[in-house]
Amino acid sequence: MSITKRSHVLIAIAAVCLSFAAGAARAEDGVLRVGIITDMSGQYSDGNGPGSVIAAQMAAEEIGGTVVGRKIEIISADHQNKPDVATGIVRNWIDNKGVDVIAEGVNSAVALAIQTVTRERKKLFLISGSGSSDLTGKQCSPTSVQWTYDTYASSNATAKAVVARGGTPWFFLTADYAFGQALERDASKAVTSAGGKVLGAVRHPFDTADFSSFLLQAQSSGAKILALANAGSDFRNAVSQADEFNIRASMQLVALQVTLTDVPALGLAHAHDLLFTDSFYWDRTPETRAFAQEFFKRHGAMPTAYQAGVNSALRHYFKAVAATNSVDSETVIAQMRKTPVNDFFAQNGVVREDGRMVHDMYLMRIKKPEESKSKWDLYEYLATVPGDQAFRPLDEGGCPYVAKAH
């Protein structure tokens, strides 16, 4: 080997050693670091974004700001809805910043990419804003928990309720990325299993402004139900433009995913009477109201399910760290699995070995303008769907870690 090549090898080895030394030093600096990675500036920022960081800060404060002698530090970053940006941030956090746990991860394509990194690095990933059921299916991780919802649960109860009321056949308007594709897939299965029919689907790009051609395709399909398998501004644009085309004269709109902050932005005049399933509503119980009022003081808006899920997931994580006196991912997640989740978000929730936190879901209807008493009085609660009925059975997801265990 030449002197030049030998020098380059030695420099590379030294850099790796320094990186490991830096990581070890940070691991022993008496700080527990939580990284909130989310959409801070794009179409999901209202329902996630800064509000998710506030929810994380509240969880840290609720446990006293420290756990097992470590001060809790919350850091955050904007992944810009780009998987490559997200993975670069997470790798840097783990390798160079001493981050112990990653949380949030809205946008399913982004979350799947992050989960690959955290699985390789054996770090905990507490997923709140991302819905693809693949996160606990074939692409699951032994160190991830999908906390708030998934596409299976969101579509399952809604589809069954609509078909039971005679709502069939269906046509899907689907966001063409991991989340929308999974939502359409899971909802289609629920429709057919309930005795309904699916006539087809049209897929639109992420962040679409003009839905006219897609809505005309849906209208000409002959379906009675137009299922919206999208979210954020895509969902809002689709609903408002559907009204411009008078779609509701021949089709019922069904929302497969609704974020609380979408509704004031869209307006009840457009959003009214949409049926959907959610994991959390701020005005459902005294406990949800207490959390929501404290959150509102800090953020000026009521919490979405995703923001509430960030808080709940971190509460459970901090309790597991305290119980085990450890921040080792495998030790902590084992404790999280054996401890029921009981808080404002879930009662008797269970963290399964495929990474799914199983809890009750709620069938909701968006109120008419005349029914709403205030800006955030938006939903009518219709029914509770027990967790074991809402979420996909453990043996049907195809998680390889579950397959190895049984």
Automatic annotation (TrEMBL):
Signal peptide: 1-27
SUPFAM superfamilies: Periplasmic binding protein-like I
UniProt keyword Ligase present: no
Domain of life from the UniProt record: Bacteria
InterPro entries from the UniProt entry: BCAA_transport, Leu-bd, Peripla_BP_I
Record-level GO BP terms: amino acid transport
Keywords, sorted A to Z: Amino-acid transport, Signal, Transport
The Leucine-binding protein domain, residue ranges: 32-367
Protein family per UniProt: Belongs to the leucine-binding protein family.
Official protein name in the record: Branched-chain amino acid transport system substrate-binding protein
Organism, scientific name: Bradyrhizobium macuxiense
